[in-house]
Amino acid sequence: MKGLTLTQKEQGRLQVLNLVIEGRIGVAEAAELIGLSERHAWRLLSAYRKEGATALAHGNRGKTPSNRTLETTRELVVDLARTRYAGINHTHLTELLIEREGLTLARSTVRGILSVAGLASPRHRRQPLHRCRRERMPREGVLVQIDGSYHNWLENRGPWLTLLLAVDDATGTIPFALFREHEDAQGYFRLLWGICHSHGIPLAIYTDRHSVFQPPARSYETLEESLSKRGRSSPGRR
User: Fold this and answer.
1) Domain ranges of the chain
2) Mean pLDDT across the stretch 33-49?
3) 176-211 burial, b if ≥16 CB within 10 A, otherwise e?
4) What is the reported pLDDT for 71?
5) pLDDT by residue (tens digit) across 105-137?
6) What is the predicted pLDDT for the residue at 196?
7) How is residue 185 annotated by DSSP?
8) What is the DSSP string of 92-113?
9) Distance between the two ends of the chain, CA-based, in angstroms?
10) Domain 143-213 of CATH type 3.30.420.10
11) Which of 102, 114, 137, 218 could cross-link with 119 by S-S, CB 3.0 to 4.6 Å?
């Protein structure tokens, strides 16, 4: 092979094989040095003795890869992507090339061709989903929201307190509020009393999922359960 140029790796193998031929090292040691199995090293040594340095070069060196896309096909793909199928992403374009143009190419091949040509796959961004704010209630007193906020309200001049607060949904005003040490049921009862006393009874109350507003686990027996147990425990009639 004229004008053969070996890579650095192939030159290293050449030097090691020359050491084997000179009798300075064995094949097993040579295989370890060049990172091959001993069996492969023997095959490589045999080929080197027959063909010389050409045997160390990769078999496809200087040849056009069989899977290389023809230049005319590459130009056609780029032209179609810029004209007839402009604005179509690479995946869809690959499908159209197969269905309409008779060009059977892998998506990775199409992407590579277009990337070299500077044609990135367009991305159609979806419109962001905006939250629709609920309309406020039409009149004051229809809905009152109540909640608690545990905070350093006294700015280190006293204990941390919980502000129990009521906000009217229609107007955003505060019909009543009070401070408690903790968010508890008694505090919310006082908050509700203050709302009713100062503004009247609201039509609806909105709360979060705090344990204060959750019904406790049922720890009592219903009348049916109690009677059922008595029936099972009473002695049968003779």
Assistant:
1) 9-56, 71-116, 143-213
2) 87
3) bebebeebbeebbeebbebbeeebeebeebeeeeee
4) 83
5) 888 889 889 988 888 887 766 666 666 667 888
6) 94
7) H
8) HHHHHHHHTS-----HHHHHHH
9) 115
10) yes
11) 114
